[in-house]
Structure formats: structure tokens, C-alpha cells
Amino acid sequence: MNKSAGIPAAQWLAGQHDNMLALLADLVNIDSNSYDKAGVARVFRRLESFFSEHDLSITSHFVGDVEAAISVTVNAGSTVGQPVLLMGHCDTVFPAGEAARRPFRIQDGRAYGPGVADMKPGVVMNAFILAAAAQSPEVLPEITALFTCDEEIGSPLSKDIIVPFAQKARFAFNAEPGRPSGNVVTGRKGGVFFEMDIEGRAAHSGANFSEGISAISELAHKIVALDELTDIDQGVTVNVGLVSGGLSVNTSAPSAKASIDLRIFNLEQRESLVGSIRCICNKSFITGTLSKLDIKGEFRPFVPTAQSKQLFELYQSELNAIGHQAEGEFSGGCADSGVTSSLGVITLCGTGPVGGKFHTLDEYCEIDTIVPRGLAVLNTLTRLSEQQW
Length: 389
Hints:
Number of strands: 16
Largest sheet: 6 strands, mixed
Strand order of the largest sheet: 1-2-6-3-7-14
Number of helices: 11
Radius of gyration: 23 Å
Order of helices and strands: HHHEEEHEEHEHEEEHEEHEHEHEEEH
Structural class: alpha/beta
């Protein structure tokens, strides 16, 4: 690429509104549930095509035979500033066929469709920021964009890919959707997601009731104990969100299963609460039951620091300069920004285009925020070297 023939990154990006919407439409119209690795790979291929159009090559990152992430780096080895990581996930919570049922559409300044806020517009925004920087004649920091496959289920595959990228970066911008108010996210809870399996003993509930050991009854006792761990004032919540079990209505349940969601503010709470949940699992309220607990996914909390506040204030000033406003807010939701912040990377989250009603049929994106939010990130990263960190 002949960078000397390019135009300043912000000037180029400012003219990309229609192209950004076109790429967003393509991505929204691809089903990419977290468990649909082939669907996520189709999103990766569309991004690969976009980057190829801008003379940029992707690197695929595999976990076993699964393509868990792709990355693109521009200005590698730049001596200006310190490396920047742009983050985004390509998976959604919606099932196969949802894109055909609810394809991308625009109405009254809002875009609709599966993943249209969380977080395909953030993916598009990061892709265009990278393309803008790649063609610009300006001397900019090293910028890497990382696109992952499974954030909606706790990043079980992509987390180990994020870590080495974070260890090389000084700053991270996670393009989760901007809040409906326009705010960005300056702190998040952490989350641990468990699966508990309980084994009992089957018996006919009429003829041989006393021979049975109900795994469902054991689970009921455990749920009551788990609920008592919630402490709203301390920001701790424990939610048993899914339960299943039993064989038939007239059989003592030989097995039961529960999925448990733990949310915490900090890692100290994490250690204490995980221990308490394990104790409840290991305790047999009903003699003869056996239980097993597995951690299926986990997000570290995004704990605000003085430096992350400084990064937010720089971003805020750049957003204000182009006529948009944002405050910082705390979110009880989890995200991959917890990974970067826990490793000491100066992190800002919720930098994507503004949207709302995430994970619902009414999810939307404010299309007139796509370019401004991208410009705010781009202009912020060009000024990072001016600050004392």
C-alpha cells in the first residue's frame, strides 16, 4: 500500500458512512451464534474480504480445529506511542435462521437485525478504523484489531488468544455497543458461569418410594443455599438460570442439572464466592446424592483505575469535539474488557456505535453514531502519545 498517496485517517473515515452500513448489513445477515462456529467463520471470511480490498492480510488463530479469532495489524513496530488493541466479538446470541427471519433493515435512523448492536457495528467500526490508519500518510501507533468467536458464552476459546495480544498492548478499546444514553463503559462486573450435575437414584415413586434418592430434591436444597449468597449491597449476585432433571413424573429423579451465574465486583469476591459455591455443591443435603461442579466460562471484572479514567477523559474530549457527548457508566454485564484490564492494559469499553435492547428482537443501532464513534476512537489513539501515563 502506498501510504503517501493516502489521505489523513480521520478525513477518510468521515466519508465512509454508507460503506460502513453496507458491511454492517452483510454481517448482520450472517447467522453467527456462539456455538455455530461455521457461521462465525463466515463472518470472518467477509471481514477477510473487506481487509483484502484494503491490501491488508488477516491472521487466523485456531484452538484445535476451530478458527477462534482473526487479527489484523497496521503500522507494526511503529515508534510513535505504544501499541493499541481494538477488540470485538463476531458471535451473537441468536439461533440459526434468525438472519433470514429478521434481515438487516433501517427505519427512522435505526438499524435492526440480529446482532445489530451487540456487537456487529463495533466490529465494522474497528475494521474501518484499521483501514483508515493503513492508508493514511500520518505516522500512527501500532494498531491491532482482534475479532473473536465466542464472547457471548464467556470466551472459552478466544480468551487464551486475547491474553497474548493484551500482553503486547498498552491500550485497549473494546467496541461493545455504546449505551442507549450514548455513554461508554468505564467498569464492569466479572462473571463466573457454572454447571452443576447431581446424581441420585431412581425408584418407582409409588411402589418403591423409600428406595429412591431424588436429585431434584437435592438441587432444590442447593438452590435455596445458593440464593442466600446474593448480596446486593456488595454487588454480588448468584442466579440459577437453568435447571433440568428427572426421568418421569412417577420416578425419583436419578439426575439433575443446574446452570449458575455468579457476578462480582472484584477478584477478592470471586475467590470467596467460588469457594462458597463449591461448598454448597459438595454438601449432600440428602444422603446418597453426589454432585459435581464445573466452571464453563468466566469473565474477569473490569476494575476502573486512574489511568483508565484518564483514557476515558481523553476519549470524551475527542467525542465532544465532533459534537457528541458521553459519560462513563458502570455495567453489571461482562465483557472481554475484563481480560485486558486485569492484565494491566489501560482499557475503555462500550466504544462501539450507540444501540439498545441488546439480545432481543427489538435490538437496534443508531446509524448516525457509527462514523462519530469511530472518529472518536481514531482521534483518541492518535493523541495517546501526548499524555503522561
